[in-house]
Write a structure and sequence with these properties.
Belongs to the GrpE family. This protein has about 210 residues and is α+β, with helices and mostly antiparallel strands. The chain folds into 2 domains: about 100 residues, Hemagglutinin Ectodomain, Chain B (Alpha-Beta Complex); about 55 residues, Roll (Nucleotide Exchange Factor Grpe, Chain A, domain 2). The chain has 2 helices and 6 strands. The strands form 2 sheets. A 3-stranded antiparallel β-sheet has the order 1-4-5. The longest helix has about 130 residues. The radius of gyration is 59 Å and the shape is rod-shaped.
Length: about 210
């Protein structure tokens, strides 16, 4: 009977030891799991912070890159605008120069043609001299043609230079003779041998005159 009781006590001791061992293992397991969970949480937080820092750095880098790209784009726009302005200025200068050259070429061509017409006018005037009052139909027809020719020249910008009775001006007159005449004023034109003409503001042909005193 005593032996059975001792056997039961031994079994109870073993059960208690087993329970204690299991409890200790459970505590160790729980402690390990808690530690691992804490470590995992810390790692997660560190990763999250690293991700946030990386994102922030990336965001700042993107901002600077965008700003740098915008500055470069503005510089290119300014450069292109400057080129366009220069080209427009060059084109405007070219246009003005072309118009001036065209105008000069036109004037040179017109003067060349008009200079060839003036001898015809001179011959008309010589042929009509003394026929102003004639009632001959031929003479009247020639008078009409002469007037038409002079009207056309006037419309083209040709006008005669006033000479007879005016003071000699070397810019408009060509003195081929000089006489002393008490009745005439100083440097007065007393006779015109060949009529001079202006083309707008340019002398087309100087008047050939005789100057007194």
């Amino acid at each position: 009977m005593a032996e059975e009781k001792k056997q039961e006590d031994r079994e109870e001791v073993k059960v208690d030891e087993t329970v204690e061992t299991e409890t200790s293992e459970e505590k160790d397991t729980e402690s390990t799991e808690a530690g691992e969970a804490a470590a995992t949480k810390e790692e997660a937080e560190e990763k999250e912070e690293s991700a946030e820092e990386a994102e922030e750095e990336k965001g700042n880098g993107g901002f600077f890159k965008k700003k740098e790209k915008k500055d470069k784009k503005d510089a290119q726009i300014e450069e292109l605008t400057d080129k366009v302005r220069r080209q427009m200025a060059e084109f405007e200068n070219f246009r003005k120069r072309s118009e001036k050259e065209k105008s000069q070429m036109y004037e040179v061509g017109a003067k060349s043609i008009l200079e060839k017409i003036l001898p015809v006018v001179d011959n008309f005037e010589r042929g009509l001299k003394g026929m102003e009052e004639s009632e001959d139909p031929f003479a009247q027809g020639m008078q009409m043609i002469y007037k038409q020719l002079m009207t056309s020249l006037e419309e083209a910008g040709v006008s005669p230079i006033e000479a007879l009775g005016n003071e000699f001006d070397p810019n408009f007159h060509n003195a081929v003779m000089h006489v002393e005449d008490e009745e005439a004023g100083e440097s007065e034109i007393v006779e015109e041998f060949q009529k001079g003409y202006m083309y707008h503001d340019t002398v087309l042909r100087h008047s050939m005159v005789k100057v007194a005193n």
